[in-house]
Amino acid sequence: MQLTRLRDMAPANSPEPTLSAPGDVLIKMERVGVCGSDVHYYTEGAIGTQVVKYPFTVGHEGAGRVLEVGSAVTRVKPGDRIAFDPAMPCFQCSQCRSGRFHTCTAMKFLGCPGQADGCLSELLVMPQTSCFRVPDSLNYDEAAIVEPLSIGIYAVKLAGDVRGKAIGITGAGPIGLCVLLPARAQGASRIYMTDKIDSRVALAREAGSDWSGNPETEDVTRAIAAAEPDGLDIVFECSGDQEAMDQALHLLRPGGKLMQIGIPGANNRVSFDINMMRRKELTIQNVRRQNECVQAAIDAIAGNEFDVNVMITHHMPFERTKEAFDLVAGYRDGVVKAMIAFD
């Protein structure tokens, strides 16, 4: 399924992919999660400097079954059920050699213009280094959620020890929930979430937040400040919204940390109140996808540390992919995570 122009897509008559390297793995896709970044490409045609050239296949959250492997593959075998990391680093550049595989200077990432076609396809070839076998206890929905969950786990890890901390999360969509679940499991004492959609505000409470509110119908900054007069230790910004970033600075205590995860889309610039940042001596830490947290995400789901199914709200067959994208783009019908099912 390929993007053909803004807000339109059509099936592609492409040749079946084949193994071209000894380390390649041929995968039959079973699930693809519709991500907010996919929707940016669908509705805006770009994220920052990454501009779509049509036709183009998006999709990077996925799970499937191994059909065939190259002669050098040892991690997986035909018949294995797998999740995969959409990042394909070179393992040779200075960033990779320093352990920063997620900022590889020669990165290829599924569904990223100019790098690699996405996984919204019945068959997919990936290097074995991106393939992770999942236990039978995980269903394909859970295996596909591993990708955004690994981002949440990485963000919480990057923020430092959250035990006993009061944290905020702006945006109760999939990424916000993927931060909430590990933060709660790792001992955050109080978690406050905000979202402009009432159904997501309610879901945040169901998923484990101590408080949630809608900034369009209440003064969330005042409400959280009343509960936390000293301010929040950490705010995870998961919406990419300028107003949410402004709220985060107000909510943070002096010496607090803003973890910037949300993607503003085609807009390359945001702003911060430098006077407030300076007086509070705030830290802003950008979060770039994830780094070496895929297995941790699989283990957390398999170990029943929390239930990721709470965020899966819709399933669509592959032939109704455009309908799923329109649903997510319009925030309709209480959608949080829509899954494309190939079965």
Task: Write up what this structure looks like.
The structure is a single chain. The protein is an alpha/beta fold and 343 residues long. The protein folds into two domains: 2-133 and 307-341, Quinone Oxidoreductase, Chain A, domain 1, CATH 3.90.180.10; 150-286, Rossmann fold (3-Layer(aba) Sandwich), CATH 3.40.50. It is 29% helix and 26% strand. It has ten helices and 19 strands. The chain has helices at 36-44, 94-97, 140-159, 174-185, 198-207, 220-227, 242-251, 274-280, 294-302, 321-329, and strands spanning 2-5, 8-10, 24-33, 46-47, 50-51, 61-69, 81-84, 87-88, 108-109, 123-127, 131-133, 166-170, 190-194, 211-213, 232-237, 252-260, 283-286, 312-317, 337-341. Helix 3 crosses helix 4 (174-185) and helix 3 packs across helix 9 (294-302). The protein is globular. The protein starts with a strand and ends with a strand.
Summarize the structure.
This protein has 343 residues and is α/β, with parallel strands linked by helices. It has ten helices and 19 strands.
Shape: globular
Q: What can be said about the biggest beta sheet?
A: 7 strands, mixed
The CATH architecture of the largest domain would be: Alpha-Beta Complex
Taking the alpha carbons of the first and last residues, their distance comes to 16 Å
Tell me the Rg in angstroms: 20 Å
Low-confidence stretches: none
CATH superfamily of the largest domain: Medium-chain alcohol dehydrogenases, catalytic domain
Number of strands: 19
Number of helices: 10
Structural class: alpha/beta
What is the average per-residue confidence, as pLDDT, rounded to a whole number?
Answer: 97
CATH class of the largest domain: Alpha Beta
Estimate the strand proportion.
25-35%
Please provide the ordered H/E string of secondary-structure elements.
EEEHEEEEEHEEEHEHEHEHEHEHEHEHE
Report the CATH topology name of the largest domain: Quinone Oxidoreductase, Chain A, domain 1
Helix content: 25-40%
What oligomeric state best describes the polypeptide chains here?
single chain
Kindly give the count of domains.
2
